[in-house]
Write a structure and sequence with these properties.
The protein has a five-stranded mixed β-sheet, sandwiched between helices. Strands 6-11-8 form a three-stranded antiparallel β-sheet. The protein has a three-stranded mixed β-sheet with strand order 13-15-14, with helices on one face. It has 560 residues and is an alpha+beta fold. 43% of the residues lie in helices and 15% in strands. It has three domains: 10-165, 3-Layer(aba) Sandwich (Cytidine Deaminase, domain 2); 188-329, no CATH class; 335-486, no CATH class. Helix 9 crosses helix 15. A hairpin with a 4-residue loop joins strand 14 (370-373) and strand 15. It has helices spanning 27-38, 75-84, 105-121, 140-143, 201-215, 218-230, 236-245, 255-260, 335-341, 344-354, 387-403, 406-412, 418-435, 448-452, 457-529, 545-559, and strands at 45-51, 57-65, 89-95, 125-131, 137-139, 252-253, 263-265, 272-277, 280-288, 302-310, 313-320, 324-326, 359-362, 370-373, 378-382. The protein has 16 helices and 15 strands. One of its GO terms (molecular function) is metallopeptidase activity. Residues 533-560 have a biased composition (Basic and acidic residues). Residues 283-307, 528-560 are annotated as: Disordered. InterPro entries: ArdC_N, IrrE_HExxH, MPN, RadC_JAB, UPF0758, UPF0758_CS.
Length: 560
């Protein structure tokens, strides 16, 4: 009998499903359904939820059923259904019949093993949830034990929401900030916990309110503006969240983004909580006109499904580059850009081109360093100041021209008092100077506390958004102008080098022509003198060359 290798087929066997009144559109929905199953169990039951790449549940599988206070969960059994289900991610869940949510050492070790195995197989672990009776639960991701990538959970079970892959709508909020050079990889301080613990939107908003109250002091406000200068593409809320948790952050990205760049978040590092958009798409039926397919309000026509997008937000976790290690990150902003700032005339030229009105240097009476003339629509800057002060003043007054022009404010239907206008202009100037490493030691905001007191969150946020958007527009615009100027200078230098090279070639050509002419002159002179050129014997009148050679040979023979 010949040897043979048996061939088998492995298939999933479907069990009766668990039903829910809510759509099964995310892992939180699966956990809610499983909670009803697990909460009343008198023994520990270990389950896995297999997820698609967008975190939608594929199915769930009961891995093992144990005793009152323990169960066996082997990685082989856990990943069996994940592989057969072609899962992109997995979520673990088990119950504690005792009602004590604190994870045991075995729970922690199992989670760490599954996390490590999942990374190797390309099926990462999103979270591990422990449930008990009622609405209580324990999230390993939320507690960071051990650090888990990818998802952030809210506090209450009925508000549970995971941060999944970036959707198309989220891509306008880049997690990777452009613009930091060398030195960004140095480890900084530890992440500071938010004032209100929890990653549900209610807790995050409460932390933001506390943060707003805290930043409006002279020193704290300046530090916040420095963070804003580095993260001007982020919303005010996220900029404030980063400043509150890690004020020295320079370059942040999500866990997966760092891995794609060849870097790994160090074990034990606490992430930075920010807010990310998570719009929800819903389908609803509406009546449409049979003729032109347009909606009709009176109910006449045929019905079709229309998709609507509901704005929604979720907690997301990012890490600063100082919390990672691995492959060096290429500088996204060329260093010569900051070096170009040292060229006062070049930087001032960039400001002039971005300003909506002309900038003129002149003598100004009194103590003012500059002003924006709304009538003449021009900016006047005091002559004779230091280069850095001239730049600061030019940026400050450019902000006034951009934000506080009378026609602009009337068109937007806004009225701002004098202090608000000065706060906005000075804050933008501080952000711009900080971004380009121009000395900001002369800036101070002693009146910021008085200005902010009595103003509601909406009004403060409006001003902060104005500052952020204007600073971002100037920082990006100045960067682009400086790049353009540097490219023009390089091109001009290359053309000058080429012209210099052509001049040298022409000069060498003239020298060679002169040398040839001189050589011809020498030859003619030698001919006139009857002197043969070097290498040819001198002719003697009356003696043929052949005869001379014979005489020469005879002389040599006699000499020997």
């Amino acid at each position: 009998m010949s040897d043979r290798l048996k061939q088998v087929a492995i298939r999933l066997v479907e069990q009766p499903p668990l039903y829910s009144e809510t759509p099964m559109d995310g892992p939180e929905a699966a956990v809610r359904v499983m909670h009803d199953l697990l909460a009343d169990m008198d023994r520990e039951v270990f389950c896995i939820v297999n997820l698609q790449s967008d975190l939608r549940p594929i199915n769930m599988n009961i891995v093992s059923v144990g005793a009152l206070d323990h169960t066996i969960a082997h990685p082989r059994e856990i990943f069996k259904s994940a592989i057969l289900s072609n899962a992109s991610r997995i979520l673990l869940a088990h119950n504690h019949p005792s009602g004590v949510l604190t994870p045991s050492n075995e729970d922690i070790q199992t989670t760490a093993r599954i996390q490590e195995a999942g990374e190797l197989m390309g099926i990462p672990l999103v979270d591990h949830i422990i449930v008990a009776k009622g609405q209580e639960y324990y999230s390993f991701k939320e507690k960071d034990v051990p650090p888990l990538p990818g998802a952030s959970l809210v506090r209450k079970l009925d508000e549970l929401y995971f941060a999944g892959d970036k959707t198309e709508e989220e891509k306008e909020y880049p997690l990777l900030r452009e613009g930091e050079g060398k030195g960004a990889e140095k480890a900084g301080t530890a992440t500071i916990p938010l004032p209100v613990s929890g990653k549900d939107m209610k807790s995050i908003l409460a932390s933001l309110e506390e943060g707003v109250k805290g930043i409006f002091t002279g020193e704290r406000y300046a530090e916040f503006l420095k963070t804003m200068s580095r993260f001007h593409r982020y919303s005010f809320q996220n900029t404030l969240l980063i400043a509150m948790q890690r004020p020295d952050a320079t370059l942040v990205a999500g866990y997966r983004k760092w891995q794609s760049m060849g870097r790994q978040v160090r074990r034990g590092e606490k992430g930075i909580t920010i807010v990310a958009p998570a719009p929800v798409k819903r389908k609803r039926e509406q009546d449409v006109s049979v003729q032109n397919e347009s909606p009709v309000p009176d109910g006449e026509g045929k019905e079709e499904e229309a998709e609507t997008v509901i704005p929604r937000f979720k907690a997301a976790t990012v890490f600063d580059i100082g919390q990672t290690e691995g492959r060096p990150v290429e500088t996204l902003e060329p260093e010569e850009l900051t070096d170009a700032v040292k060229d006062h005339d070049l930087f001032l030229k960039a400001i002039r081109e971005l300003s909506p009105v002309p900038i003129r240097m002149d003598e100004i009476e009194g103590q003012a360093k500059g002003f924006y003339d709304t009538g003449a629509r021009e900016i006047v800057v005091q002559k004779g100041m230091s280069e850095s002060q001239t730049i600061k003043t030019a940026v400050h007054e450019t902000c006034h021209a951009m934000l506080h022009d009378r026609e602009t404010m009337e068109k937007e239907g806004v009225q701002k008092d004098q202090m608000t206008r000065e706060i906005e202009a000075e804050s933008v100037a501080y952000c711009v100077c900080s971004a380009f490493r121009i000395d900001t030691s002369g800036y101070s905001f002693p009146y910021i506390a008085g200005w902010s007191s009595g103003r509601d969150m909406k009004e403060l946020k409006a001003s902060m958004d104005t500052i952020r958007e204007t600073a971002g527009k100037l920082i990006d615009g100045l960067s682009e102008k400086l790049r353009l100027f540097l490219a023009e200078e390089k091109q001009q230098a290359m053309e000058e080098d080429r012209d210099q090279g052509l001049f040298l070639l022409e000069d060498i050509g003239r020298t060679l022509e002169a040398a040839k002419e001189n050589n011809r002159y020498v030859k003619d002179s030698l001919k006139q003198l009857g002197i043969r050129q070097e290498g040819k014997p001198k002719e003697v009148p009356g003696v043929r060359p052949e005869q001379k050679r014979k005489e020469h040979k005879t002389e040599k023979a006699i000499g020997r």
